[in-house]
Request: fold
Amino acid sequence: MKHAILGATALTLLATGAIAQEVTLGRFFGDCENAGTDTKASVGEACIIQSIINAADATLDGVSVNTLPTDWGNYYDQIKAAYAGGTPPDVHVMHRHRVPEFASLGALADLTDDLDAAGIDPSDWEPAALEAVTYNDRIVGVPMDFHANLWHVNMDLMEAAGLVADGAPVLPSSPEELLEHARAVKEATGQDYLAADFAQFPLGVRLVLALVWQQGANVFDGDTATLDTAEARNAISAVTQLFEAELANPQLNYADSQQAFLNGEAAILVNGTWVVDLYASEAANAETALSTYYAADFPTLFNEGATWADSHMWAIPAPLKANDPETYDAALRVLAFINDHNVDWARTGHMAVRSSVLESDEYAGLPHRDEYTGTADIARDTPPSARYGAIQDVLNREFQAIWLTGKPVDTALLDAQVDVQDLLDR
Amino acid sequence: MNRSYYWLILALSIPAFLWLVPTIWMVSLSFQPNDVLARTTSTTALGLIPIPFTPDNYIALFRFGQVPMWFLNSLIVSAGMTLAVLAVSTTAGYALARLDFPFKGPIIVLCLMGLMVPEQAVFIPLYTMFADWGWHNSHHALILPRVAVPIGVFLMMQFFKAIPKDIEEAARIDGVGWLQIFWHVMLPLARPAMMTLAILTFLYAWNDYLWPLVSAQQREFFTITLGLASIQSNFAQAEGLGRVMASGVIASLPVVVLFLVFQRYVVRAMTAGGTKG
Amino acid sequence: MPEHQGSRRALSQRQAALILLLPFMAVYGLFLVYPFFKGVWISLHDWNLMAVAFNPDAKTYVGLRNYERVMWGRDITWGALANPGFQIVGFLGMVASYLLYRSGRAGRVTALAMGIAALLLFVLPGFHPDAGGRWFDRRFWPTVGNTILFVGLAVPGVTVTAMLLAAALDGETRAKAVLRTLFFLSQVLSVTVVTLIWQIMFSPRQGLIANLTELFGGSPVVWLTAEGFAMAAIVIATIWWSLGIAMILFLAGLQDISKDLYEAGALDNATGAKAFWHITLPNLKRTITVVVVLQIILHFQVFGQSHLMTNGGPNDTTQVLVRYIYQTAFRDSELGRASAMAVFLFVIMGAFSILQFVLGRETEE
Reply:
């Protein structure tokens, strides 16, 4: 396989006359064709990451980067299949939650002793970022961000419902208040209060999870599933009360819910940090109904603050380090370049991982950044597990069954409990 | 040709048109600007007529994007598979139909049993084998598994069986060897059957989804069918509905043209290949 | 002497056969026979996709445990009326197939096939977990059930539509040929094109169907995420896609019906629908059986429609067997379990293939 790629590049090299170490790079985030190399001008996750990669390709002497973008849906299926087939990309992006699954098999290269030489300073990483990429005391990746669920707010709709104070939205502090606010928005504007992807990706799951954590509970603990609980019921009914009162529509998928928010059909969109710059630029666009946009911390409806969070990070396959030191070095240089451009990636709306970036004026000056400063402190996730992906699928299936097909909450939670336990037992 | 005949044709034209509507819609959307489609898909006649019209989606498709590369991969894989299937099927089909050799009966039964094994029952072990050999992400990995499916051998065997014995015997008496008979006498006779088999294989190769999905993890080796699947799940992202639809049209063009030109063979191939279409 | 000359220059019949057979047998052995047995072997192991890739010894032999984990449960019992709906139908089916055979209205093979199907319908739904027991894999049998439901909707849908169209379009006129082409056209498209088209057709925001409903003042159905509609949606897309083959097979079957029969029927005033019912249908019996069996085999392997249009949802209502196999292997990395399911799929497909073969034989006789 390698030879085929090398063969293909050899042809292009003959054409350009350059000799460069090729690094194949696997990522999700979607396609961006006209990203260019200006890392300060691109908009949206796909184009920002691609502009950074293009800049690395153009700037680094002797390194050419070949991006193998792929879609979200099958990303981990494909990357696993690639590892198993012996043809993983030389560097690839992954989530913190996947580290146990990959690292426990020895799939990820141990970067601990090579970072300094490559110009990457782990001591500049936030402690939580260092922890995210550490497995058994070894560093197996380069962190790129923290991302978390936010409440994206259409301020005009909130204003109409009298839910704005001091230029900030007034968000609920209890499930009861959530319903009151939703009614107020419906009465004042005729629009839904809240939208989110409740029908496709697990964004609805993350919303419910946050509400579970806010009550000090979790969905599993060590090897025991703890889903069939009063806390889970409270969290779910906080959401389903909106569906029952027809103040939110559970049937929207990711694209539809986003469209509804941009069209001014929902006051709140629950989605991640990754869309802050996209919505900010859409709000500036006169043709988009959304005109006054605010990015708020996930509100606390129960006892303690919590919102779902994760990290994007970059890893290098262990076989590359063992078998191909030259490409490994080139791959590390690419990672160093990405690490150096942490502030550019943060333009998406993600939170930076480097202390020096977090303290910089450039970071503080990013649009809407001051509106969700509390998120870093309430960021949470389920406990680490090699079965994370499958567990998310169980939760997504059973929660969706509740609001899309009317499955009784008790049955759904019991089924989810059994299935998660089954996964933990394997 | 009486009145009731014209009424029948007229009555059937309505469902036939409805049957075509989804295809027409795909083509029509592919010629509309993406920013219009983002607002509404039913500008003119429910979107079935491409007004406002733009060829931009197709231009962009060939300027950027990986659709041309996927298209080329599909051509390579489909052509390679077709040639390979023809080669092994005509030879083996001829041997099984016309030659005498030990264990012929059991070999035929063994091949027959292969028809019972669906692709889905062997794709996991095939995946592990190809992984061990480092074969994934290559054209031959996409081609070879299908070459092993014995359907072609059976089509050719049945065809060769139907050829009268005396053609062969005349050649034998003239001292022509078996391989020469195969090459100079049988193959020319078999052209229609080979055409049928070629079309069947090409269509299968062009449209195959499950095996490329597991074997090709790198976009350079996606076939157009697989690439289209990856575009579909990216609806939320940049490209826009018109672009996606244009990719669908491009992906369908060769098979539709093949069908319209060789309709008779395609129909025969589909009937013969039935299960594996 | 020519013969002498020939045998000196040419190979013996055996040698020629060997040379001609070798390429296919090599490919066949390596890429079909061997993988098939390897699949069975994998199904007897606890085999993690990635773990084994990094360390070939990371698999353990577990015997039939994967099969047990997939298909069985704790405290499973059998009751004759545990699932009365299916079981009564199954029981009646057994009685019916016996009576049909006795009265000579069904052939031996048809009666036997019907009888076995009815027996399975009576026996299989009878298994259920006792109080306190449960299936080890709660999703497997529902997934099989969804697959059967899909087959049960798609096959009659395709068969009836194709038969009616074939009867209407049988004939040598130009207009009929054009119409046949139109109906056949969608058959050559790939599953990803079909799902692409229908995904958008069904979309509540951008879909043609939604546009139509809104035009008439209705509120659009959210087809692909609404329980009940999701399965209907993939069945509709499937009928649209795969009608062609069935129609062609029926047209071929119609060619074999003697024109004399219709002429004789016309004397008895049997034309149009009457002729279809009394002459066409009885004479198409064999073609119908062949089409139905072919379609069952084809649609039992459904994957793309479910994978791309609905992701198996909502609430697993469109999760089908091949998609479950794919996910178990490549999302959960559990090749052993996935292979056990693949062997199960093979057994079912094999049974229908044998049926198809036997029926084909019967038709030839």
User: Anything to note?
Assistant: Confidence is low (pLDDT under 50) at residues 12-17 of chain A. Chain A has two domains: 16-146+311-353, 148-309+381-425. Residues 16-146+311-353 of chain A form a domain with the D-Maltodextrin-Binding Protein; domain 2 fold (CATH 3.40.190.10). Chain A touches chain C at residues 73, 76-77, 80-81, 83-86, 102, 105-107, 199-200, 251, 253, 256, 259, 389-390, 393, 397-398, 400-401, 404-407, 415, 418-419, 422, 426 (CB under 8 Å).
